[in-house]
Amino acid sequence: MAAKKRDYKRESAKFASSPEARAAHVKRVQARRIMKKALGAAAIKGKDIDHKTKLRNGGSNARSNLRVRSIKANRGDNR
Questions:
Q1: 3-state SS, residue 28
Q2: In the chain, how many H helices and how many E strands?
Q3: What is the mean pLDDT of each run of 10 residues along the chain (79 residues)?
Q4: CB within 8 A of 49, min separation 6: which ones?
Q5: How far apart are the C-alpha atoms of 75 and 79, rounded to whole Å?
Q6: How far apart are CA 74 and CA 68, in angstroms?
Q7: Number of other CB atoms surrounding residue 35 within 10 Å
Q8: Among 29, 33, 42, 60, which residue has the fewest nearby CB atoms (within 10 Å)?
């Protein structure tokens, strides 16, 4: 069975450019900036910033809701 080619341009237009997706991206970038300011660039280099309560579950960018985790640990939990 031949694999169907993905239309990345269509996917981007449909999902990544929606107002909800853009707002979530902005919050993730802000979270990284908050942690960089609090801990320093060296402490977060090569790490992910995790929201203890996920943004999609009503979490916020409050410092108490953020933590630094390894990429493997953070991306493995979010499935």
A1: helix
A2: 4, 2
A3: 84 83 91 96 95 92 96 82
A4: 28, 31, 32, 35, 66, 67, 68, 69
A5: 8
A6: 9
A7: 21
A8: 42
Phi, psi of 67 (to 5 degrees): -150, 155
Residue with tokens 């909800």: 20
Q: Which two tokens stand for residue 43?
A: 């402490």
Q: Which pLDDT score is estimated for 17?
A: 81
What tokens appear for 11 in the block? 């996917």
Nearest CA-CA partner of 50 in 17, 34, 3: 34
Q: Taking a C-beta distance cutoff of 8 angstroms, is the pair 51, 32 a contact?
A: no
